[in-house]
Amino acid sequence: MCGIFGFVGEGLNVQDLINGLKKLEYRGYDSAGIAIENEKNISIYKKEGRIYNLESEIPQLMEKKISTALGHTRWATHGGVSDQNSHPHTDCTGKVAIIHNGIIENFQYLREKLIKNGHIFKSETDSEVIAHMVEENYSGNLLECVIKVLHELNGAYAIGVIHTDEPNCIIAARKGSPLVISAGSNISMLASDVTPILRYSKDVNFLNDGEIAKLTNNGYELYDLQGNKIERKPIHINWDEACAERSGYNHFMEKEIFEQPIAIKSATIGRLKDGIPCIKELEPLKDFIETKLEKIYIVACGTAYHAGLAMKYFMQYYSNIDVSIEVASEFRYMNPKIDGKTLTIAISQSGETLDTLEGVRIARKNGSHVLTVCNVVGSTIPRESDSVIYMNTGPEIGVAATKTYTAQIAILYIVGAQIALWKNLYSEDIKNALCQIENLPEYFNTVLGYSQKIKELSKSYCGYRNMMYIGRRFGYTAALEGALKLKEISYINATGYQAGELKHGPIALLDQEFPVFAMVCDDDIKEKMISNIMEVKARKARVVAVGIEGDEKIKTLTDDYILIPKCEQAVFPLAVAPVMQLFAYNVALLRELDPDKPRNLAKSVTVE
Ligand code: M6R
């Protein structure tokens, strides 16, 4: 959950290092720091808070050319947020500097052992033990030394290590936390993801667990934990550097909300024609699906879980196929009933979420085929899965998932339709929903056109402390996601409920200080939803609704409303997503919060 960027080579300066680091700030923004090695000396600059705090402390350094450097942006786990706990960390002599992403589980034991041997610690972090262990074990070969140290570490790590006795060299290693390396002209780089690398090279190598890389001016070499050399060709990344820029928008979240028409197009193109699914990644599974498949299990976290829930409803409602879904952190520990007749679908934007990854491992261990829907090419979850469907939406930088949520649902519906087709359960309703997904780019353009109205609406709700989101069936899945968007970036206590559940407890919370956001889908149970809104109104709670154009009842019943063009009920969670996202975005701005970097969160959650 931290960001790592470093390089060895010629031609780059401190500003380049900082700029690279800024591309990873979404991974953690509690503090930032850099280590620069120059003429057998390591200089460390680190500062609590955002990268600009660090940057503003060292303006005189920005143009300075550097040949070996490590940078880190932190999401605190062990040790509070402070300058001292910021990375890089050094050993007692100042000859070693390290950066680390992950958690060293046996750090307490190692730290006590090192202290007994006379080492003096300057931080409360688990990571600092690595620097002292390198100091203790170094005898002239940094690669061998780091390999030795790694054998003693338990837990998860992506690390970069430098030593003044071996200038122009970085040793990088990975277990459990992502790390990508690359060689451009006269420069070798390591980073937590490809975004800071793309400016210099589009050919990258994703380290596997237990792999170590030695980066020098002449490129990189890969090794295993026994020190054996590994040969592996890099893979080519199609993303442009510009995809990871704000391109004139105020925030990445805003940009990514408005990118949804194009993101949906990229996610669905070639996978759908006139309402008929044709996903080539699923072809190898045709026989399994037709003859063996009995059950589908979906595993995901956060927004990806909400997308999965929409798929579950889609499959059960239209084709009566048995689908179970579990939040990955629960799935891991619940002894799920899966076997060779189960298809497990893992959903992850980042492809690095540890809980989802462990879910994938458990499913495979139990004989299930694992299909992953993921956005980040080459990330860990796809690499450990049996089949992968990449979302092709380009990088999502804002911590709040937006364009990847709608792309996930679109892809999952097409997967669901493909399964229904092969199981002879395809229907006109499924076809209609898929036809609308083909037209979603246009539909989204219309809904995004309401942005000014949504901005005005958010003014009336930004001052509340609580908010409840309600819906039924597909509207319920949308309510969950709407509530998550609001709470994670505005810190308003927002919860999603099935509207029918209100009377079983949650309605007790409602009064004029507790507004309700109602998702009113145009379906066969709309009247029940209307009754729930009336129950809410009877408790004097203010109600804002999203409904379908032409719905006169909503206009008279609710305090505020946004009406969107007609859509199939299954498409409703997609159709309302831009409204929910823009509402949360504007509320966050009105509360003077940074929607791209909500407190306590990070984009990719690689710890348990
Ligand atoms: O990368 P993943 O899709 O696996 O991430 C899962 C969740 O951490 C993620 O969706 C999170 O809930 C988002 N911040 C929601 O906006």
Provide a descriptive summary of the structure in words:
- The chain is 35% helix and 25% strand.
- It has 608 residues and is α/β, with parallel strands linked by helices.
- The protein folds into 3 domains: 3-243, Aminohydrolase, N-terminal nucleophile (Ntn) domain (Glutamine Phosphoribosylpyrophosphate, subunit 1, domain 1), CATH 3.60.20.10; 246-448, Glucose-6-phosphate isomerase like protein, domain 1 (Rossmann fold, 3-Layer(aba) Sandwich), CATH 3.40.50.10490; 449-593, Glucose-6-phosphate isomerase like protein, domain 1 (Rossmann fold, 3-Layer(aba) Sandwich), CATH 3.40.50.10490.
- The strands form 5 sheets. Strands 3-2-4-1-10-9-11-15 form an 8-stranded antiparallel beta sheet, covered by helices on one side.
- The chain is globular, with a radius of gyration of 25 Å.
- It starts with a strand and ends in an 18-residue tail after the last helix.
- The model has no long low-confidence stretch (mean pLDDT 95).
What does the secondary structure layout of this molecule look like, with pairings?
Layout: E1 3-13, H1 14-22, E2 31-38, E3 41-48, H2 51-57, E4 65-74, E5 89-90, E6 96-104, H3 107-116, H4 128-137, H5 142-150, E7 155-163, E8 169-175, E9 180-184, E10 187-191, E11 203-206, E12 211-216, E13 219-224, E14 229-230, E15 235-236, H6 252-258, H7 260-268, E16 272-273, E17 276-277, H8 286-291, E18 295-300, H9 302-319, E19 323-327, H10 328-331, E20 342-348, H11 354-365, E21 369-374, H12 380-383, E22 387-390, H13 403-422, H14 428-438, H15 440-448, H16 451-461, E23 466-471, H17 474-490, E24 493-498, E25 516-519, H18 526-538, E26 543-548, H19 552-557, E27 560-564, H20 572-575, H21 577-590
Parallel strand pairs: 18-19, 18-20, 20-21, 21-22, 23-24, 23-25, 25-26, 26-27
Antiparallel strand pairs: 1-4, 1-10, 2-3, 2-4, 5-6, 6-7, 7-8, 8-12, 9-10, 9-11, 11-15, 12-13, 13-14, 16-17
Helix pairs in contact: 4-5, 6-21, 7-13, 7-15, 9-13, 9-17, 13-14, 16-21, 17-21
This protein binds 5-amino-5-deoxy-1-O-phosphono-D-mannitol (M6R).
